[in-house]
Amino acid sequence: MNILVIDAQGGGIGRQVIPALKKACPEACVTAVGTNAMATAAMLKAGAQRGATGENAVRWAAQNADILIAPIALVLKDSMMGEITGDMAASVGSSRATRILVPTERCGTHVAGAHGVSMQALVEDAARQAAAMAAGA
Questions:
Q1: Which of 36, 51, 38, 39 is nearest to 14 (CA)?
Q2: Distance separating alpha carbons of residues 35 and 32, to the nearest angstrom
Q3: Cα pseudo-dihedral 21, 24, 28, 33, rounded to 10
Q4: Residue 36 in 3-state DSSP?
Q5: Which residues have CB under 8 Å from 135's CB, separation 6+?
Q6: 51-68 pLDDT tens trace
Q7: Is this model's pTM higher than 0.90 or not?
Q8: Are 80 and 8 in contact (CB under 8 A)?
């Protein structure tokens, strides 16, 4: 089972998701892809087995993952202060992987029902969902 975690900016969400994911689903191969080197480094430090950086890495990895976990901003062109290109957003949106999107309000998009939920709770839920999907595969 190849689980892909994509993040941008400083990789803070991915850095939280990866340890929770490794705890919930220790047998999974976790790949980290950052839109920049800082995000990738943070996720590798958090325990991802492999990592890559940049637009082409996002595009390639999104098409080769079984499960994809990312902030919701990864499907929104020009989000994260312009870091997310149209090709990145399209690649995540059209991936054959099952997508688990972590809602954040920092990208100017609000998700009904997610207001007031802590990032820790969202991260743990994403890890639980991925583990359940991996177990059923």
A1: 39
A2: 10
A3: 0
A4: coil
A5: 25
A6: 999 999 999 999 999 999
A7: yes
A8: yes
